[in-house]
Amino acid sequence: MTLFSLDHLSVRRAGKSVVDDVTLSVQAGECVGLIGPNGAGKTTLMRAALGLLPHEGSSNLARLPLGERARQAAFLPQNRDIHWPVTVDAVVALGRAAQGSGKLHAEDRRAIDRALARMGLADYRDRIATALSGGEQARVLIARALAQETPLLLADEPVAGLDPEAQLRTMQVFADLAREGRGIVVSIHDLGLAARFCTRLVVLHHGRVVLDAPPREVLSDPRLSEVFGIRGFLADTPDGPVFQPMAVTR
Ligand SMILES: Nc1ncnc2c1ncn2[C@@H]1O[C@H](COP(=O)(O)OP(=O)(O)OP(=O)(O)O)[C@@H](O)[C@H]1O
Protein backbone atom coordinates (compact mmCIF):
# COMPACT_ATOMS: atom_id res chain seq x y z
CA MET A 1 0.00 0.00 0.00
CA THR A 2 1.39 3.41 -0.98
CA LEU A 3 1.49 5.75 2.02
CA PHE A 4 3.49 8.60 0.57
CA SER A 5 3.78 9.78 -3.00
CA LEU A 6 5.37 12.80 -4.57
CA ASP A 7 4.82 13.50 -8.23
CA HIS A 8 7.23 15.94 -9.89
CA LEU A 9 7.52 17.96 -6.67
CA SER A 10 9.55 21.16 -7.03
CA VAL A 11 10.16 23.99 -4.57
CA ARG A 12 11.79 27.36 -5.18
CA ARG A 13 13.10 29.50 -2.35
CA ALA A 14 14.32 33.04 -2.86
CA GLY A 15 14.18 32.47 -6.62
CA LYS A 16 16.38 29.36 -6.44
CA SER A 17 15.35 25.79 -7.20
CA VAL A 18 15.77 23.87 -3.91
CA VAL A 19 13.73 20.74 -4.64
CA ASP A 20 13.76 19.85 -8.30
CA ASP A 21 11.22 17.53 -9.91
CA VAL A 22 11.16 14.81 -7.25
CA THR A 23 8.98 11.78 -7.89
CA LEU A 24 9.01 9.30 -5.05
CA SER A 25 6.74 6.88 -3.27
CA VAL A 26 6.93 5.01 0.01
CA GLN A 27 5.06 1.80 0.70
CA ALA A 28 3.84 0.39 4.00
CA GLY A 29 6.71 -1.59 5.51
CA GLU A 30 9.48 0.67 4.23
CA CYS A 31 11.92 2.68 6.34
CA VAL A 32 13.33 5.13 3.81
CA GLY A 33 16.45 7.09 4.69
CA LEU A 34 16.60 10.50 3.04
CA ILE A 35 20.28 11.34 2.78
CA GLY A 36 22.29 14.11 1.17
CA PRO A 37 24.81 16.79 2.08
CA ASN A 38 23.89 19.96 3.99
CA GLY A 39 21.59 22.09 1.86
CA ALA A 40 20.59 19.20 -0.43
CA GLY A 41 16.90 19.95 0.19
CA LYS A 42 15.86 17.22 2.64
CA THR A 43 14.00 19.49 5.08
CA THR A 44 12.44 21.47 2.26
CA LEU A 45 11.23 18.28 0.59
CA MET A 46 9.57 17.04 3.80
CA ARG A 47 7.96 20.38 4.59
CA ALA A 48 6.64 20.82 1.06
CA ALA A 49 5.37 17.23 1.04
CA LEU A 50 3.39 18.03 4.18
CA GLY A 51 1.92 21.12 2.53
CA LEU A 52 3.90 23.47 4.78
CA LEU A 53 5.66 25.18 1.85
CA PRO A 54 4.40 26.33 -1.54
CA HIS A 55 5.40 23.88 -4.26
CA GLU A 56 4.77 22.71 -7.80
CA GLY A 57 3.81 19.16 -8.62
CA SER A 58 1.88 17.14 -6.09
CA SER A 59 2.09 15.34 -2.78
CA ASN A 60 -0.58 12.96 -1.53
CA LEU A 61 -0.28 14.47 1.97
CA ALA A 62 -0.44 18.13 0.97
CA ARG A 63 -3.73 17.39 -0.82
CA LEU A 64 -5.42 16.15 2.38
CA PRO A 65 -7.54 18.38 4.63
CA LEU A 66 -5.60 19.30 7.82
CA GLY A 67 -7.30 16.87 10.22
CA GLU A 68 -6.96 13.95 7.86
CA ARG A 69 -3.31 14.81 7.18
CA ALA A 70 -2.57 14.67 10.92
CA ARG A 71 -4.17 11.23 11.09
CA GLN A 72 -2.15 10.03 8.08
CA ALA A 73 1.30 11.43 8.91
CA ALA A 74 3.25 12.49 11.98
CA PHE A 75 6.10 14.96 11.48
CA LEU A 76 9.12 15.33 13.68
CA PRO A 77 10.71 18.65 12.71
CA GLN A 78 14.43 19.34 12.92
CA ASN A 79 13.99 22.01 15.59
CA ARG A 80 13.48 20.13 18.85
CA ASP A 81 13.07 22.87 21.47
CA ILE A 82 10.39 22.42 24.09
CA HIS A 83 9.20 25.77 25.39
CA TRP A 84 6.52 24.80 27.89
CA PRO A 85 7.40 23.82 31.48
CA VAL A 86 4.95 20.92 31.51
CA THR A 87 5.45 17.23 32.23
CA VAL A 88 6.87 14.78 29.70
CA ASP A 89 3.52 12.99 29.82
CA ALA A 90 1.70 16.20 28.84
CA VAL A 91 4.08 16.84 25.90
CA VAL A 92 3.64 13.29 24.57
CA ALA A 93 -0.14 13.58 25.07
CA LEU A 94 -0.09 16.48 22.58
CA GLY A 95 0.59 13.83 19.94
CA ARG A 96 -2.96 12.62 20.51
CA ALA A 97 -4.53 16.06 20.10
CA ALA A 98 -4.82 15.69 16.33
CA GLN A 99 -6.38 12.26 16.65
CA GLY A 100 -9.55 13.15 18.52
CA SER A 101 -11.61 15.76 20.31
CA GLY A 102 -8.85 16.94 22.65
CA LYS A 103 -10.17 14.84 25.54
CA LEU A 104 -7.96 11.84 26.32
CA HIS A 105 -9.67 8.46 26.08
CA ALA A 106 -8.36 5.06 27.20
CA GLU A 107 -6.97 4.37 23.70
CA ASP A 108 -5.11 7.70 23.78
CA ARG A 109 -3.65 6.79 27.18
CA ARG A 110 -2.46 3.45 25.80
CA ALA A 111 -0.87 5.15 22.77
CA ILE A 112 0.97 7.60 25.07
CA ASP A 113 2.22 4.73 27.26
CA ARG A 114 3.39 2.78 24.19
CA ALA A 115 5.26 5.81 22.86
CA LEU A 116 6.94 6.50 26.22
CA ALA A 117 7.94 2.83 26.52
CA ARG A 118 9.32 2.67 22.97
CA MET A 119 11.57 5.66 23.68
CA GLY A 120 12.64 4.37 27.12
CA LEU A 121 10.90 7.29 28.82
CA ALA A 122 8.49 5.54 31.18
CA ASP A 123 10.45 6.78 34.20
CA TYR A 124 10.51 10.33 32.86
CA ARG A 125 6.77 10.85 32.49
CA ASP A 126 6.39 13.13 35.53
CA ARG A 127 9.55 15.15 34.90
CA ILE A 128 9.21 18.73 33.67
CA ALA A 129 10.21 18.58 30.00
CA THR A 130 12.13 21.87 29.96
CA ALA A 131 14.31 20.58 32.82
CA LEU A 132 15.62 17.68 30.72
CA SER A 133 18.86 17.63 28.70
CA GLY A 134 18.74 18.46 24.99
CA GLY A 135 18.96 14.80 24.00
CA GLU A 136 16.27 13.79 26.49
CA GLN A 137 13.97 16.52 25.15
CA ALA A 138 14.60 15.23 21.63
CA ARG A 139 13.50 11.74 22.73
CA VAL A 140 10.34 13.23 24.27
CA LEU A 141 9.46 14.87 20.96
CA ILE A 142 10.07 11.61 19.10
CA ALA A 143 7.68 9.97 21.59
CA ARG A 144 5.12 12.70 20.89
CA ALA A 145 5.30 11.91 17.17
CA LEU A 146 5.08 8.15 17.87
CA ALA A 147 1.99 8.70 20.05
CA GLN A 148 0.12 9.89 16.96
CA GLU A 149 0.32 6.27 15.74
CA THR A 150 -0.10 7.41 12.14
CA PRO A 151 0.46 5.10 9.16
CA LEU A 152 3.37 7.36 8.10
CA LEU A 153 6.10 9.10 10.08
CA LEU A 154 8.34 11.80 8.61
CA ALA A 155 11.31 12.50 10.87
CA ASP A 156 13.85 15.24 10.11
CA GLU A 157 17.25 14.32 11.58
CA PRO A 158 15.74 12.61 14.63
CA VAL A 159 19.02 11.19 15.95
CA ALA A 160 21.08 14.41 15.80
CA GLY A 161 22.43 15.12 19.28
CA LEU A 162 21.38 11.76 20.75
CA ASP A 163 23.84 9.50 22.56
CA PRO A 164 24.71 6.17 20.89
CA GLU A 165 22.15 4.16 22.88
CA ALA A 166 19.35 6.61 22.07
CA GLN A 167 20.41 6.71 18.40
CA LEU A 168 20.27 2.93 18.13
CA ARG A 169 17.05 2.74 20.12
CA THR A 170 15.39 5.37 17.93
CA MET A 171 16.45 3.79 14.65
CA GLN A 172 15.40 0.37 15.96
CA VAL A 173 11.96 1.81 16.81
CA PHE A 174 11.64 3.15 13.26
CA ALA A 175 12.73 -0.19 11.78
CA ASP A 176 10.25 -2.01 14.05
CA LEU A 177 7.42 0.34 13.04
CA ALA A 178 8.19 -0.35 9.39
CA ARG A 179 8.16 -4.09 10.04
CA GLU A 180 4.77 -3.63 11.71
CA GLY A 181 3.49 -2.16 8.43
CA ARG A 182 3.95 1.56 8.90
CA GLY A 183 5.96 3.79 6.53
CA ILE A 184 8.93 5.84 7.71
CA VAL A 185 10.82 8.63 5.97
CA VAL A 186 13.83 9.68 8.01
CA SER A 187 16.42 12.25 7.04
CA ILE A 188 19.76 11.31 8.49
CA HIS A 189 23.43 12.29 8.19
CA ASP A 190 24.81 9.17 9.88
CA LEU A 191 25.28 6.86 6.90
CA GLY A 192 26.23 3.97 9.21
CA LEU A 193 22.88 4.10 10.97
CA ALA A 194 21.14 4.57 7.63
CA ALA A 195 22.89 1.42 6.34
CA ARG A 196 21.88 -0.62 9.37
CA PHE A 197 18.26 0.36 9.84
CA CYS A 198 16.78 1.66 6.57
CA THR A 199 15.26 -0.62 3.97
CA ARG A 200 15.98 1.89 1.22
CA LEU A 201 18.04 5.05 0.78
CA VAL A 202 17.10 8.06 -1.32
CA VAL A 203 20.03 10.37 -2.06
CA LEU A 204 19.18 14.00 -2.64
CA HIS A 205 21.75 16.32 -4.24
CA HIS A 206 21.03 19.92 -5.23
CA GLY A 207 17.33 19.13 -4.79
CA ARG A 208 17.28 16.15 -7.13
CA VAL A 209 17.04 12.43 -6.41
CA VAL A 210 20.30 10.95 -7.70
CA LEU A 211 20.08 7.45 -6.19
CA ASP A 212 17.14 5.45 -4.85
CA ALA A 213 17.92 1.85 -3.91
CA PRO A 214 18.59 -0.54 -1.00
CA PRO A 215 21.39 0.68 1.35
CA ARG A 216 24.15 -1.67 0.15
CA GLU A 217 23.58 -0.61 -3.45
CA VAL A 218 23.53 3.11 -2.66
CA LEU A 219 26.52 3.00 -0.32
CA SER A 220 28.68 1.11 -2.81
CA ASP A 221 27.74 3.33 -5.77
CA PRO A 222 30.61 5.48 -7.09
CA ARG A 223 28.21 8.41 -7.34
CA LEU A 224 28.04 8.53 -3.53
CA SER A 225 31.53 9.97 -3.32
CA GLU A 226 30.67 12.64 -5.91
CA VAL A 227 27.62 13.67 -3.89
CA PHE A 228 29.18 13.67 -0.42
CA GLY A 229 32.83 14.28 -1.30
CA ILE A 230 33.92 11.35 0.84
CA ARG A 231 35.21 7.83 0.50
CA GLY A 232 33.68 5.23 2.82
CA PHE A 233 34.18 1.69 4.04
CA LEU A 234 31.22 -0.67 3.61
CA ALA A 235 31.17 -4.19 5.08
CA ASP A 236 28.72 -6.84 6.15
CA THR A 237 28.60 -7.93 9.79
CA PRO A 238 26.33 -10.33 11.68
CA ASP A 239 24.44 -7.21 12.87
CA GLY A 240 23.92 -5.99 9.31
CA PRO A 241 25.86 -3.67 6.99
CA VAL A 242 28.25 -1.10 8.45
CA PHE A 243 29.38 2.04 6.68
CA GLN A 244 32.14 4.28 7.94
CA PRO A 245 33.15 7.52 6.18
CA MET A 246 36.94 7.31 5.83
CA ALA A 247 38.32 10.30 3.97
CA VAL A 248 37.39 13.49 2.19
CA THR A 249 37.86 13.20 -1.57
CA ARG A 250 37.67 16.84 -2.70
N1 LIG B 1 13.74 30.30 3.81
C1 LIG B 1 14.66 30.10 2.87
N2 LIG B 1 14.97 31.04 1.97
C2 LIG B 1 15.89 30.83 1.02
N3 LIG B 1 16.56 29.68 0.88
C3 LIG B 1 16.31 28.71 1.74
C4 LIG B 1 15.34 28.85 2.78
N4 LIG B 1 15.30 27.70 3.49
C5 LIG B 1 16.22 26.88 2.93
N5 LIG B 1 16.80 27.48 1.89
C6 LIG B 1 17.86 26.89 1.03
O1 LIG B 1 17.36 25.69 0.50
C7 LIG B 1 18.39 24.73 0.39
C8 LIG B 1 17.94 23.42 1.03
O2 LIG B 1 17.77 23.61 2.41
P1 LIG B 1 17.26 22.42 3.34
O3 LIG B 1 17.15 22.97 4.73
O4 LIG B 1 16.08 21.81 2.72
O5 LIG B 1 18.49 21.43 3.22
P2 LIG B 1 18.81 20.10 4.04
O6 LIG B 1 19.15 19.05 3.05
O7 LIG B 1 17.70 19.79 4.99
O8 LIG B 1 20.12 20.55 4.80
P3 LIG B 1 20.74 20.14 6.25
O9 LIG B 1 21.32 18.77 6.07
O10 LIG B 1 21.83 21.18 6.41
O11 LIG B 1 19.67 20.24 7.28
C9 LIG B 1 19.62 25.34 1.05
O12 LIG B 1 20.47 25.80 0.03
C10 LIG B 1 19.08 26.50 1.83
O13 LIG B 1 20.01 27.53 1.91
From TrEMBL:
Signal sequence, start to end: none
UniProt GO molecular function: ATP binding; ATP hydrolysis activity
Keywords: ATP-binding, Nucleotide-binding
Highest rank taxon of the organism: Bacteria
Domain ABC transporter, residue spans: 4-231
Record-linked SUPFAM superfamilies: P-loop containing nucleoside triphosphate hydrolases
Protein name: ABC transporter ATP-binding protein
Organism field: Paragemmobacter kunshanensis
Phylogenetic placement of the source organism: Bacteria, Pseudomonadati, Pseudomonadota, Alphaproteobacteria, Rhodobacterales
